[in-house]
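User: Here's a chain of 290 residues. Predict its fold as tokens.
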Amino acid sequence: MKSPKLSVATPVLTMFPWGSGEWERDASIEDVAQIAEAADQLGYHHLTCSEHVALPAAEGNRRGTRYWDPLATLGYLAARTRRIRLATNVLVLGYHHPLEIAKRYGTLDKVSDGRLILGVGVGSLKEEFDLLGAPFADRGPRGDDALRALRAALSVHEPAYHGEFYSFGEMVVDPCAVQEHVPIWIGGRTLRSLRRAVTLADGWAPFSVSLGQARDWLGRFEIGDGFEVVLPPPAPLDPINEPEQTRDVLADVAAHGATIVSATFTHTSVQHYLENLHALAELHLKAGTA
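Assistant: Prediction complete.
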């Protein structure tokens, strides 16, 4: 079995009630940049930043309430790194016109020299849709149309598309993405999200889906070469104190269909997080040469 790539579920930028360290509350962009630079030098595949504009206070115990803006954040981290890819995980399609995404994130692709991964989803938080005046009931078919429009527009100077919800032509988007084919990944926690990914995108990055469920769903589709599946471990990794167990967990996540493992750790400081990054990269290198 091919060893999976590793990615960074970037701390600080999003704080979940069940998995964030106390140090993250007062961490700075410099702390995040140190992590990004280390992951870049160590060969991690990508780092992430998620999108929410505003969340109901009542959602704090379930989703957390901190979400740094991905465009501003990834733009800064692009300038501090050279190789690591920059993944939105995820943008909510219904909050944006496809050409808005093509322009803003095409510009990010340009300033990062072609390192954008566009992770997107259809969204599930009705209160946020209502706040932004975005349609909620038809977000599924609307999102599918947006995906088709994005594929037609992301790397095209003068894009044209005519679909059920979006239609444009004789419009210039300059700059646009520099990659000929920007990877588009689908987030979500349903079988439908995987179906959408297999049909309209280049990868699947689910959340709140068990490894067993992911393997079962993946087995229902013909998965083509190059299709990425990003799965987290079932619990935070401890490559410093439990290297053998960590190696076994990585192999198990890959056996359930992951081509990329989204690394999470238990950590008490930015220095401790960096030590985990180094330890995991060393383990991964040894596994790849074994």
